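Now produce a polypeptide, keeping tokens residue-aligned:
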Amino acid sequence: MFENINVSWGGIWQAFASYMTELSQNPFRLISLILDLVIVGYLIYKFVIYAKKSRAWQLLKGIVLILIIVAVSEILQLKILNFFLTFFMPYGVIALIVIFQPELRRMLEQLGTNKITKYFGFDKDLATKTKEDIYKIVIAATELAKTKTGGLIVVERDIQINDIADTGVRIGSEVSPQLIVNLFTPNTPLHDGAVIISNNKITAAACILPLADDKDIAKELGTRHRAGLGISKESDAIAIIISEETGKISVAKEGTLIVDVKEDSLKTILIKHIVTKRFGDEKLKRIEKVKSQIKRLDK
């Protein structure tokens, strides 16, 4: 019974040898092999990168350890141990998919994001406008902090959050610090909830965000902070939270919360994780160079 369940390493080696023989007889298969290795390597690399940013990383190391134990138990003929591990592994995979469904969904959404236009240089004007919008968001957040007006601003990045925008009231306005401040003015119809900014527009207001249920979140942090942290876990969006109790600004990104962020730091964080990450340092430098040349010609 155990022999039927155990992995046949001899069979794997025989299949590999047969494949190498076929490869030597047909050189064109080498191109297919290289393409195969590149795709698999890219997928593994992306998975590791995204796993490191989530709680799945520690579990991933545990899975690798279990696979090593399975291999060792096969080599040392520890048949009972090998039987139990190989028997329960399929159920463990299903359990992992259920438990880490948000992380897996986020990873697949990241891999499916279309970034073709970025590499062909079609976003030059968009990079400048995005930077200007960030300055406007920082101005609005600073004004809200000065008056201790609670606010929650979510900036969409690569992963679309249209389902979150649908929970609020659609606006579709240009980004304006005055409008953002006005939306969070107490006792106004849209002050409760989050403002969503996507595609360089104020897409919606009064939106409902998923709440983070982490037990290690400080008790003094309210619903806004949990909501900002929640959307940063469900997507790659960045949330700016303004506390109405303290007037402090916090930033939630990639499932982490940065508390008490000053104006300059907020600007730096948003530019780094929105503009630089999306358009690249070299492209931004070229844009600034072209703009300076145009200014000199105008003079």
